[in-house]
Protein backbone atom coordinates (compact mmCIF):
# COMPACT_ATOMS: atom_id res chain seq x y z
CA UNK A 1 0.00 0.00 0.00
CA UNK A 2 1.43 3.39 -0.93
CA UNK A 3 2.22 5.87 1.82
CA UNK A 4 0.34 9.14 2.19
CA UNK A 5 2.18 12.31 1.19
CA UNK A 6 2.06 14.75 4.09
CA UNK A 7 2.93 18.41 4.43
CA UNK A 8 3.50 19.72 7.94
CA UNK A 9 2.18 23.22 8.72
CA UNK A 10 3.92 24.58 11.81
CA UNK A 11 7.27 23.10 12.86
CA UNK A 12 7.50 24.11 16.52
CA UNK A 13 7.74 21.90 19.58
CA UNK A 14 4.54 19.83 19.20
CA UNK A 15 5.32 19.05 15.54
CA UNK A 16 8.12 16.70 16.67
CA UNK A 17 5.62 14.27 18.22
CA UNK A 18 3.74 14.17 14.92
CA UNK A 19 6.92 13.18 13.08
CA UNK A 20 7.50 10.31 15.52
CA UNK A 21 3.82 9.29 15.43
CA UNK A 22 3.69 9.27 11.65
CA UNK A 23 6.99 7.40 11.44
CA UNK A 24 5.81 4.75 13.92
CA UNK A 25 2.65 4.16 11.90
CA UNK A 26 4.66 3.56 8.71
CA UNK A 27 1.82 5.10 6.71
CA UNK A 28 3.16 8.53 5.85
CA UNK A 29 5.91 10.27 3.91
CA UNK A 30 6.66 13.80 5.07
CA UNK A 31 7.31 15.58 1.78
CA UNK A 32 7.08 19.29 2.65
CA UNK A 33 7.15 21.73 5.56
CA UNK A 34 5.48 25.13 6.00
CA UNK A 35 7.02 27.29 8.71
CA UNK A 36 7.36 31.11 8.66
CA UNK A 37 10.03 31.28 11.37
CA UNK A 38 13.58 30.45 10.15
CA UNK A 39 14.63 29.85 13.78
CA UNK A 40 11.82 27.33 14.36
CA UNK A 41 12.68 25.58 11.12
CA UNK A 42 16.35 25.39 11.98
CA UNK A 43 15.61 23.92 15.42
CA UNK A 44 13.17 21.43 13.86
CA UNK A 45 15.69 20.24 11.28
CA UNK A 46 18.38 20.02 13.99
CA UNK A 47 16.08 17.80 16.11
CA UNK A 48 15.11 15.68 13.11
CA UNK A 49 18.10 15.40 10.77
CA UNK A 50 16.26 12.86 8.59
CA UNK A 51 14.01 15.71 7.43
CA UNK A 52 17.02 17.79 6.37
CA UNK A 53 16.22 17.51 2.65
CA UNK A 54 12.47 18.02 2.88
CA UNK A 55 11.59 21.30 1.11
CA UNK A 56 10.28 24.08 3.33
CA UNK A 57 7.97 27.00 2.53
CA UNK A 58 7.15 30.08 4.55
CA UNK A 59 3.36 29.57 4.39
CA UNK A 60 0.85 26.77 4.02
CA UNK A 61 -0.56 28.22 0.80
CA UNK A 62 2.88 28.39 -0.83
CA UNK A 63 3.40 24.75 0.10
CA UNK A 64 -0.05 23.77 -1.23
CA UNK A 65 0.73 25.44 -4.57
CA UNK A 66 4.16 23.88 -4.95
CA UNK A 67 3.79 20.31 -3.69
CA UNK A 68 1.40 17.49 -4.51
CA UNK A 69 0.01 16.35 -1.12
CA UNK A 70 -2.58 13.93 0.25
CA UNK A 71 -2.73 15.33 3.77
CA UNK A 72 -1.44 17.95 6.22
CA UNK A 73 -0.77 18.30 9.90
CA UNK A 74 -1.65 21.70 11.37
CA UNK A 75 0.46 22.47 14.45
CA UNK A 76 0.34 26.26 14.78
CA UNK A 77 -0.95 28.79 17.31
CA UNK A 78 -4.68 28.29 17.88
CA UNK A 79 -6.35 31.14 15.99
CA UNK A 80 -4.44 30.13 12.83
CA UNK A 81 -5.98 26.64 12.76
CA UNK A 82 -9.24 27.75 11.13
CA UNK A 83 -7.88 29.57 8.02
CA UNK A 84 -5.20 26.91 7.42
CA UNK A 85 -7.58 23.96 7.83
CA UNK A 86 -10.16 25.62 5.53
CA UNK A 87 -7.50 26.25 2.90
CA UNK A 88 -6.40 22.60 3.10
CA UNK A 89 -9.98 21.32 2.81
CA UNK A 90 -10.57 23.53 -0.26
CA UNK A 91 -7.64 21.73 -1.88
CA UNK A 92 -9.09 18.33 -1.04
CA UNK A 93 -6.45 17.52 1.59
CA UNK A 94 -6.98 15.40 4.68
CA UNK A 95 -6.08 17.16 7.94
CA UNK A 96 -4.80 16.26 11.38
CA UNK A 97 -5.25 19.48 13.34
CA UNK A 98 -3.92 20.13 16.81
CA UNK A 99 -6.33 21.05 19.57
CA UNK A 100 -8.36 23.14 19.89
CA UNK A 101 -9.77 22.72 16.38
CA UNK A 102 -10.83 26.37 16.48
CA UNK A 103 -11.36 29.12 19.04
CA UNK A 104 -14.84 30.04 17.70
CA UNK A 105 -17.92 27.82 17.53
CA UNK A 106 -18.87 29.13 14.06
CA UNK A 107 -15.39 28.32 12.73
CA UNK A 108 -15.55 24.75 14.03
CA UNK A 109 -18.97 24.24 12.44
CA UNK A 110 -17.70 25.68 9.16
CA UNK A 111 -14.83 23.17 9.16
CA UNK A 112 -17.17 20.27 10.00
CA UNK A 113 -19.48 21.18 7.11
CA UNK A 114 -16.67 21.83 4.62
CA UNK A 115 -14.92 18.53 5.47
CA UNK A 116 -18.14 16.61 4.99
CA UNK A 117 -18.86 18.35 1.68
CA UNK A 118 -15.31 17.79 0.40
CA UNK A 119 -15.20 14.17 1.56
CA UNK A 120 -11.92 14.65 3.42
CA UNK A 121 -10.96 13.39 6.87
CA UNK A 122 -10.34 16.16 9.39
CA UNK A 123 -9.18 14.75 12.70
CA UNK A 124 -8.60 16.78 15.86
CA UNK A 125 -5.52 15.75 17.81
CA UNK A 126 -7.18 14.75 21.08
CA UNK A 127 -4.75 11.96 21.91
CA UNK A 128 -6.49 10.94 25.15
CA UNK A 129 -9.15 9.34 22.92
CA UNK A 130 -6.42 6.83 22.01
CA UNK A 131 -5.10 6.40 25.55
CA UNK A 132 -5.92 2.92 26.91
CA UNK A 133 -6.88 4.19 30.40
CA UNK A 134 -9.31 6.74 29.00
CA UNK A 135 -10.68 4.13 26.59
CA UNK A 136 -11.17 1.77 29.55
CA UNK A 137 -13.18 4.44 31.41
CA UNK A 138 -15.34 5.19 28.40
CA UNK A 139 -16.05 1.50 27.86
CA UNK A 140 -17.00 0.98 31.53
CA UNK A 141 -19.44 3.90 31.35
CA UNK A 142 -20.91 2.92 27.97
CA UNK A 143 -21.29 -0.76 28.91
CA UNK A 144 -23.47 0.14 31.89
CA UNK A 145 -21.13 -1.60 34.38
CA UNK A 146 -20.96 1.65 36.35
CA UNK A 147 -24.74 1.69 36.60
CA UNK A 148 -26.48 5.00 36.12
CA UNK A 149 -23.95 7.75 35.57
CA UNK A 150 -24.23 10.41 38.30
CA UNK A 151 -21.16 12.66 38.58
CA UNK A 152 -17.85 13.15 36.84
CA UNK A 153 -15.01 15.40 37.92
CA UNK A 154 -12.13 16.07 35.56
CA UNK A 155 -9.13 18.11 36.71
CA UNK A 156 -5.89 19.08 35.06
CA UNK A 157 -3.17 21.37 36.27
CA UNK A 158 0.15 22.61 35.00
CA UNK A 159 2.72 25.23 35.89
CA UNK A 160 1.34 26.91 32.79
CA UNK A 161 1.25 30.59 33.70
CA UNK A 162 4.96 30.74 34.47
CA UNK A 163 5.92 28.36 31.68
CA UNK A 164 4.13 30.26 28.91
CA UNK A 165 4.78 33.87 29.98
CA UNK A 166 5.85 36.02 27.03
CA UNK A 167 4.83 33.43 24.39
CA UNK A 168 1.90 33.35 21.92
CA UNK A 169 0.00 31.20 24.45
CA UNK A 170 -0.66 34.31 26.54
CA UNK A 171 -1.45 36.51 23.52
CA UNK A 172 -5.22 36.22 22.98
CA UNK A 173 -4.90 37.18 19.29
CA UNK A 174 -2.97 33.94 18.66
CA UNK A 175 -4.12 31.67 21.50
CA UNK A 176 -7.82 32.57 21.63
CA UNK A 177 -7.64 32.05 25.41
CA UNK A 178 -5.44 30.65 28.14
CA UNK A 179 -4.96 27.31 29.86
CA UNK A 180 -8.59 26.33 29.12
CA UNK A 181 -8.02 26.74 25.35
CA UNK A 182 -4.66 25.01 25.60
CA UNK A 183 -4.28 21.88 27.74
CA UNK A 184 -7.75 22.40 29.21
CA UNK A 185 -9.14 21.64 25.75
CA UNK A 186 -8.07 17.99 26.15
CA UNK A 187 -9.94 17.64 29.43
CA UNK A 188 -13.00 19.47 28.10
CA UNK A 189 -13.02 16.88 25.31
CA UNK A 190 -12.64 14.03 27.81
CA UNK A 191 -15.54 15.33 29.92
CA UNK A 192 -17.78 15.44 26.84
CA UNK A 193 -16.49 12.16 25.35
CA UNK A 194 -16.84 10.17 28.57
CA UNK A 195 -20.33 11.42 29.40
CA UNK A 196 -21.48 11.38 25.74
CA UNK A 197 -24.69 13.30 26.37
CA UNK A 198 -25.78 16.82 25.41
CA UNK A 199 -24.76 19.68 27.72
CA UNK A 200 -27.75 21.52 29.16
CA UNK A 201 -26.12 24.28 31.19
CA UNK A 202 -22.78 25.63 32.36
CA UNK A 203 -21.87 27.71 35.38
CA UNK A 204 -18.24 28.80 35.63
CA UNK A 205 -15.62 30.88 37.38
CA UNK A 206 -12.49 32.03 35.57
CA UNK A 207 -9.47 33.72 37.16
CA UNK A 208 -6.84 35.37 34.94
CA UNK A 209 -4.45 35.72 37.90
CA UNK A 210 -3.09 38.98 36.44
CA UNK A 211 -2.43 37.45 33.01
CA UNK A 212 -4.04 38.54 29.67
CA UNK A 213 -5.78 35.13 29.44
CA UNK A 214 -7.59 32.65 31.70
CA UNK A 215 -5.35 30.78 34.13
CA UNK A 216 -7.71 28.96 36.53
CA UNK A 217 -11.18 27.74 35.56
CA UNK A 218 -13.86 25.87 37.49
CA UNK A 219 -16.97 24.87 35.58
CA UNK A 220 -20.04 22.95 36.65
CA UNK A 221 -21.66 21.30 33.66
CA UNK A 222 -25.15 19.85 33.74
CA UNK A 223 -25.72 17.12 31.17
CA UNK A 224 -28.99 15.70 29.87
CA UNK A 225 -30.39 13.17 32.30
CA UNK A 226 -29.12 15.16 35.28
CA UNK A 227 -25.47 14.04 35.19
CA UNK A 228 -23.26 16.55 37.00
CA UNK A 229 -19.86 17.32 35.51
CA UNK A 230 -17.03 19.33 36.99
CA UNK A 231 -14.14 20.64 34.93
CA UNK A 232 -11.27 22.22 36.86
CA UNK A 233 -8.31 23.65 34.98
CA UNK A 234 -5.40 24.92 37.07
CA UNK A 235 -2.89 27.08 35.23
CA UNK A 236 -0.86 28.24 38.22
CA UNK A 237 -0.09 24.81 39.65
CA UNK A 238 2.93 24.69 41.99
CA UNK A 239 4.21 21.47 40.38
CA UNK A 240 4.67 20.60 36.70
CA UNK A 241 1.59 18.51 36.05
CA UNK A 242 -1.45 16.75 37.51
CA UNK A 243 -4.48 15.10 35.96
CA UNK A 244 -7.33 13.21 37.64
CA UNK A 245 -10.74 11.87 36.69
CA UNK A 246 -13.38 10.56 39.12
CA UNK A 247 -16.57 9.08 37.67
CA UNK A 248 -19.35 7.96 39.97
CA UNK A 249 -22.28 5.78 38.95
CA UNK A 250 -25.06 4.06 40.88
CA UNK A 251 -23.09 0.77 40.83
CA UNK A 252 -19.45 1.74 40.69
CA UNK A 253 -16.64 4.23 40.76
CA UNK A 254 -13.82 4.96 38.31
CA UNK A 255 -10.68 6.80 39.38
CA UNK A 256 -7.83 7.87 37.17
CA UNK A 257 -4.64 9.66 38.10
CA UNK A 258 -1.52 10.57 36.20
CA UNK A 259 1.77 10.04 37.99
CA UNK A 260 3.18 13.60 38.29
CA UNK A 261 6.70 12.16 37.96
CA UNK A 262 5.79 10.67 34.56
CA UNK A 263 3.16 13.01 33.15
CA UNK A 264 3.46 11.75 29.57
CA UNK A 265 2.63 8.16 30.50
CA UNK A 266 -0.82 6.68 30.79
CA UNK A 267 -1.99 7.12 34.38
CA UNK A 268 -3.36 4.58 36.85
CA UNK A 269 -7.02 3.70 36.51
CA UNK A 270 -9.13 1.70 38.96
CA UNK A 271 -12.70 0.50 38.89
CA UNK A 272 -14.52 -0.08 42.19
CA UNK A 273 -17.70 -2.08 42.52
CA UNK A 274 -19.28 -3.88 45.45
CA UNK A 275 -16.50 -2.40 47.63
CA UNK A 276 -13.81 -4.14 45.61
CA UNK A 277 -11.18 -2.17 43.78
CA UNK A 278 -10.13 -3.63 40.47
CA UNK A 279 -7.09 -2.39 38.61
CA UNK A 280 -6.98 -3.77 35.07
CA UNK A 281 -3.85 -5.86 34.65
CA UNK A 282 -3.53 -5.08 31.02
CA UNK A 283 -5.19 -2.16 29.33
CA UNK A 284 -6.20 -2.79 25.78
CA UNK A 285 -4.32 -0.71 23.26
CA UNK A 286 -6.08 0.55 20.16
CA UNK A 287 -4.62 2.39 17.21
CA UNK A 288 -2.51 5.48 17.80
CA UNK A 289 -3.99 8.74 16.55
CA UNK A 290 -1.72 8.69 13.49
CA UNK A 291 -2.65 5.08 12.67
CA UNK A 292 -6.33 5.94 13.12
CA UNK A 293 -5.96 9.01 10.89
CA UNK A 294 -4.41 6.87 8.12
CA UNK A 295 -7.12 4.20 8.52
CA UNK A 296 -9.86 6.84 8.27
CA UNK A 297 -8.24 8.39 5.17
CA UNK A 298 -8.09 4.96 3.51
CA UNK A 299 -11.71 4.25 4.46
CA UNK A 300 -10.59 1.40 6.72
CA UNK A 301 -11.79 2.86 10.01
CA UNK A 302 -13.92 5.60 11.54
CA UNK A 303 -12.69 9.09 12.31
CA UNK A 304 -12.20 8.67 16.06
CA UNK A 305 -11.73 12.39 16.73
CA UNK A 306 -13.86 14.16 14.14
CA UNK A 307 -14.62 17.88 13.71
CA UNK A 308 -17.80 17.44 15.78
CA UNK A 309 -15.47 16.95 18.79
CA UNK A 310 -14.00 20.36 18.01
CA UNK A 311 -17.49 21.86 17.72
CA UNK A 312 -18.58 20.48 21.09
CA UNK A 313 -15.42 21.66 22.87
CA UNK A 314 -15.75 25.11 21.26
CA UNK A 315 -19.37 25.30 22.45
CA UNK A 316 -18.44 24.28 26.00
CA UNK A 317 -15.46 26.66 26.07
CA UNK A 318 -17.58 29.58 24.82
CA UNK A 319 -20.26 28.82 27.42
CA UNK A 320 -17.64 28.72 30.19
CA UNK A 321 -16.18 32.09 29.19
CA UNK A 322 -19.66 33.60 28.88
CA UNK A 323 -20.85 32.25 32.21
CA UNK A 324 -17.76 33.60 33.97
CA UNK A 325 -18.05 36.99 32.24
CA UNK A 326 -21.77 37.42 32.96
CA UNK A 327 -21.74 35.78 36.41
CA UNK A 328 -24.65 33.51 35.55
CA UNK A 329 -25.58 30.05 34.37
CA UNK A 330 -25.56 29.66 30.59
CA UNK A 331 -28.07 27.31 28.97
CA UNK A 332 -27.04 25.48 25.83
CA UNK A 333 -29.41 24.46 23.09
CA UNK A 334 -29.13 20.76 22.49
CA UNK A 335 -27.48 20.70 19.10
CA UNK A 336 -28.98 17.82 17.19
CA UNK A 337 -26.49 18.43 14.36
CA UNK A 338 -23.54 17.36 16.45
CA UNK A 339 -23.06 13.60 16.58
CA UNK A 340 -22.48 12.68 20.20
CA UNK A 341 -20.85 9.32 19.87
CA UNK A 342 -18.11 10.75 17.68
N1 LIG B 1 -1.78 17.54 21.68
C1 LIG B 1 -0.89 17.97 22.57
O1 LIG B 1 -0.62 17.34 23.59
C2 LIG B 1 -0.17 19.26 22.33
C3 LIG B 1 0.99 19.59 23.02
C4 LIG B 1 1.60 20.81 22.73
C5 LIG B 1 1.05 21.66 21.79
N2 LIG B 1 -0.09 21.31 21.16
C6 LIG B 1 -0.73 22.18 20.16
O2 LIG B 1 0.14 22.30 19.03
C7 LIG B 1 -0.02 23.58 18.45
C8 LIG B 1 1.33 24.27 18.40
O3 LIG B 1 1.89 24.31 19.70
P1 LIG B 1 3.47 24.26 19.92
O4 LIG B 1 3.69 23.93 21.34
O5 LIG B 1 4.11 23.43 18.89
O6 LIG B 1 3.84 25.78 19.68
P2 LIG B 1 5.21 26.35 19.15
O7 LIG B 1 5.20 27.79 19.41
O8 LIG B 1 6.35 25.53 19.67
O9 LIG B 1 5.13 26.08 17.57
C9 LIG B 1 4.19 26.72 16.73
C10 LIG B 1 4.87 26.91 15.39
O10 LIG B 1 3.90 27.41 14.46
C11 LIG B 1 4.61 28.33 13.64
N3 LIG B 1 3.66 29.20 12.94
C12 LIG B 1 3.18 30.40 13.32
N4 LIG B 1 2.37 30.88 12.37
C13 LIG B 1 2.35 29.98 11.37
C14 LIG B 1 1.70 29.92 10.11
N5 LIG B 1 0.88 30.88 9.69
N6 LIG B 1 1.92 28.84 9.31
C15 LIG B 1 2.74 27.85 9.73
N7 LIG B 1 3.38 27.85 10.92
C16 LIG B 1 3.18 28.90 11.73
C17 LIG B 1 5.53 29.06 14.60
O11 LIG B 1 6.55 29.76 13.93
C18 LIG B 1 6.02 27.91 15.44
O12 LIG B 1 7.19 27.31 14.90
C19 LIG B 1 -1.07 24.29 19.30
O13 LIG B 1 -2.33 24.06 18.75
C20 LIG B 1 -0.97 23.59 20.64
O14 LIG B 1 -2.14 23.66 21.42
C21 LIG B 1 -0.70 20.13 21.41
TrEMBL record:
Residue ranges of the GFO/IDH/MocA-like oxidoreductase domain?
134-254
> What's the domain of life for this entry?
Bacteria
Q: Cite a single GO MF annotation.
A: oxidoreductase activity
Give all residue intervals belonging to the Gfo/Idh/MocA-like oxidoreductase N-terminal domain. Answer: 4-126
The transmembrane segments are none
Keyword annotations for this protein? Oxidoreductase
Q: Which PANTHER family match?
A: CONSERVED EXPRESSED OXIDOREDUCTASE (EUROFUNG), CONSERVED EXPRESSED OXIDOREDUCTASE (EUROFUNG)-RELATED
Q: Which family does it belong to?
A: Belongs to the Gfo/Idh/MocA family.
This chain belongs to the protein called Putative dehydrogenase
Amino acid sequence: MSTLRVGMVGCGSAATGHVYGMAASGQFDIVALAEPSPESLERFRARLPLLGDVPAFSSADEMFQAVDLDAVTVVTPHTLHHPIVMSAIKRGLHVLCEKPLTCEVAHAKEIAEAAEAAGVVVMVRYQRRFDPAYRFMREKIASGELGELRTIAVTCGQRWQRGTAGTWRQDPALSGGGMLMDSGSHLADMLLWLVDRPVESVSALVDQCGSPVDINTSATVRFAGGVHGQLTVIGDLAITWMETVVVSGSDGLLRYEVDPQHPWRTGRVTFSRDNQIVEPLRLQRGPSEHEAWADAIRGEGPNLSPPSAGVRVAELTAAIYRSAREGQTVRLDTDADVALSA
